[in-house]
Amino acid sequence: RGEGELVLASYQRPQTKITTLFSIPIGLKDEVEFWKKIYSVYTTDQAVLHDPNNLSRVYDVIPLQHCDESPTKECLKIREDQMQSAKDHLLSLVENSDNIKIRAQIGQKDKFIAGIAKADGILNEIEGIFESYDIPNEVSRLAFVESMFNGQAISRSGAVGIWQLMPSTAKVFGLKVSKGNDERLDPIKST
Question: How much is the pTM?
Fold first, then answer.
């Protein structure tokens, strides 16, 4: 087993509710397999070039320039250029490429492993909150997709915290949102 597999195994629950709640429809099998690989196989220093309308069609996996945790604009530009160059190269291999679309998806394995470490101190408490509302514990894993359990995560659209709540949504749930006090940043209150 790889490093990520061992860490992930510690968070797997007995297969009681999950198989009936989260069975994978046959029509989504390829999509689910694609995203599982994005989060468990490919790192943020790799881009998967694929057909956006058929996720089972992966054209290539390319290495990317490594950027630090807070990447510079220059580093991000190099990565964008690398992905565009690889897409252009693939399209040049096809005679009539007008109808071919290629998307680049950056891997998330390393961020996911870091997210598991961040979740370690609060996941049990979040699960307790979910249980008190009869929400399946497995739903708590959405915070990995939303923010990788980064309590300081802020999106371009203004969503904040591990659940990526917009100000209006946070207020509906009674959270305080102001310059001096933004409860979206508190993982327990926002849960």
Answer: 0.76
Q: Note whether 144 and 112 are within 8 A (CB).
A: yes
Based on the number of CB atoms within 10 Å of its own CB, is 93 exposed (0-12), middle (13-18) or buried (19 or more)?
Answer: exposed
Q: Where are the beta strands (DSSP E) in 52-147?
A: 54-63, 103-106
Helix (H, G, I), strand (E, B) or coil at 122: coil
DSSP state at residue 56: E
The three-class DSSP label of residue 151 is coil
84-87 contacts, C-beta under 8 A, 24 or more apart:
86/47, 86/49, 86/60, 86/62, 87/49
Q: Which structure tokens are listed for 9?
A: 């195994």
Q: Are 13 and 138 contacting, i.e. CB atoms less than 8 angstroms apart?
A: yes
Overall average pLDDT of the 108-134 stretch: 93
| pLDDT tens-place string over residues 40-88 | 999 999 999 999 999 999 999 999 999 987 889 999 999 999 999 999 9
* Cβ pair 149, 122 in contact under 8 A: yes
Distance CA 162, CA 173 (A): 15
| CA–CA gap between residue 20 and residue 93 (Å, rounded) | 44
Nearest to 144 by CA among 20, 7, 50: 7
